């Protein structure tokens, strides 16, 4: 079972039987009944998790970025996916057409981000919003918290109700953005007010069943990465499996906390079930930056050949509070970052052995998916949505 990630295995007569075994194995890790079927991957790109539906013409689910002008949509996209520094976003021009971007070639997660111009009237009859919403996995509505948000709330309501009519499976995510300019009390008050008003508007329209998730975000700290992580996690059908694997791994290794990171975007795609605190997450992001930066500067060949992140990538940082940060490569896009107490880190051999098993299990999750796709046995089930995300699990 330690084949290379994502490589299809040669077919043989026992294929069917093997596949059954694999699926049982997957279920044992705690995945839901439909999830393995809900995310077939036709692309087979090595190490890329795709949650698309092969029966749909849409290849990748979309994450839409909507909101009023200057609310910060393009800045969010540039900072999270292009490593733009927050200060540079001051010079971004207003978006004047829909910008589609595939996030798949350099990253574990596979989707499209559509950045909308704020001023666009997307309910213009010439504008095919039905087509847009049909293949959408998540709609992120960005509200500028430093501005008067009444107009934004009206727009949010209109957007959500229209989108819901077309596709009831969209996850609605509201980013209460630019909170770097607010005091802590003001942040809480703003969130409470926006939450209340948005839900009241939905209740007045008899649509209280629509669920909105709220996040306080800013590009000037890690909150935007954390919020994006949560949005993306909801679109990953394998999430329960990954979480279970992490739980098993940390409990058997004396590890305090572990995150599975998409190295390029610094989105964490899963963590164990202990609560996440912002500082821990920030430290992990900083560690990834350090590893990749050092590797880019000193690790590549003279002519720039090589990759800054590969199978050998690993790092240990001892903090002054008796905690050790431990980073290891899992797949070509993923890294595991763990928090370990110094005394537990003395049993590094055990941690490394358990990590080896964990890594193998993650690779098997990919292989199962590949086999399911290859055997062509995938059937669309009630539990999966039109964009391929499981209805029940998330
Ligand atoms: N203080 C603060 N400013 C931000 C933040 N995010 C974005 N901005 C600023 O907000 C301004 C508008 O950002 P854009 O990303 O262009 O906004 P947009 O929503 O894409 O605007 P349109 O394309 O016109 O719809 C820029 O000057 C950004 O620097 C944030 O988290 N905090
Ligand atoms: Mg823009």
Automatic annotation (TrEMBL):
Domain of life: Eukaryota
Compositionally biased tracts (Acidic residues): 11-23, 34-48
Catalysed reactions, as listed in the record: GTP + H2O = GDP + phosphate + H(+)
GO CC annotations, alphabetized: cytosol; Gtr1-Gtr2 GTPase complex; lysosomal membrane; nucleoplasm
Subcellular locations according to the entry: Cytoplasm; Lysosome; Lysosome membrane; Nucleus
UniProtKB keywords: Cytoplasm, GTP-binding, Hydrolase, Lysosome, Membrane, Nucleotide-binding, Nucleus
One GO process term, biological-process aspect: negative regulation of autophagy
Function: Guanine nucleotide-binding protein that plays a crucial role in the cellular response to amino acid availability through regulation of the mTORC1 signaling cascade.
Name of this protein: Ras-related GTP-binding protein
Protein source organism: Chrysochloris asiatica
């Amino acid at each position: 079972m330690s084949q290379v990630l994502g490589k299809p295995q040669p077919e043989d007569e026992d294929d069917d039987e093997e596949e059954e075994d694999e699926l049982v194995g997957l279920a044992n890790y705690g995945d839901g009944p439909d999830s393995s079927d809900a995310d077939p991957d036709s692309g087979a790109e090595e190490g890329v998790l795709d949650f698309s539906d092969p029966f749909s013409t849409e290849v990748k689910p979309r994450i839409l970025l909507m909101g009023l002008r200057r609310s910060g949509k393009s800045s969010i996209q540039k900072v999270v996916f292009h490593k733009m520094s927050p200060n540079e976003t001051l010079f971004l021009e207003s978006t004047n057409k829909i910008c589609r971007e595939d996030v798949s070639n350099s990253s574990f997660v596979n989707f499209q981000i559509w950045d909308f111009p704020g001023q666009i009237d997307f309910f213009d009859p010439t504008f095919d919003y039905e087509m847009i919403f049909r293949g959408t996995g998540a709609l992120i509505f960005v509200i500028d918290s430093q501005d008067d948000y009444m107009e934004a709330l009206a727009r949010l309501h209109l957007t959500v109700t229209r989108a819901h009519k077309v596709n009831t499976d969209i996850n609605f995510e509201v980013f209460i953005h630019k909170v770097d300019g607010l005091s802590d009390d003001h942040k809480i008050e703003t969130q409470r007010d926006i939450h209340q008003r948005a839900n009241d508007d939905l209740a007045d329209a008899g649509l209280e069943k629509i669920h909105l998730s709220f996040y306080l975000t800013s590009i000037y700290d890690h909150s935007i990465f954390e919020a994006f992580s949560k949005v993306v996690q909801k679109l990953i059908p394998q999430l329960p499996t990954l979480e279970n694997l992490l739980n098993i791994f940390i409990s058997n290794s004396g590890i305090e906390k572990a995150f599975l990171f998409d190295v390029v975007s610094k989105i964490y795609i899963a963590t164990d079930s202990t609560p996440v605190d912002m500082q821990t997450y920030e430290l992990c992001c900083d560690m990834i930056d350090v590893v990749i930066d050092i590797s880019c500067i000193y690790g590549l060949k003279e002519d720039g050949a090589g990759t800054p992140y590969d199978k050998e990538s690993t790092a240990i940082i001892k903090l002054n509070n008796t905690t050790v940060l431990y980073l290891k490569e899992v797949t070509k896009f993923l890294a595991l970052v763990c928090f370990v107490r110094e005394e537990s880190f003395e049993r590094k051999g055990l941690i490394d052995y358990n990590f080896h098993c964990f890594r193998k299990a993650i690779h098997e999750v990919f292989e199962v998916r590949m086999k399911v796709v290859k055997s062509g046995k995938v059937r669309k089930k009630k539990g999966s949505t039109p964009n391929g995300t499981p209805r029940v699990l998330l």
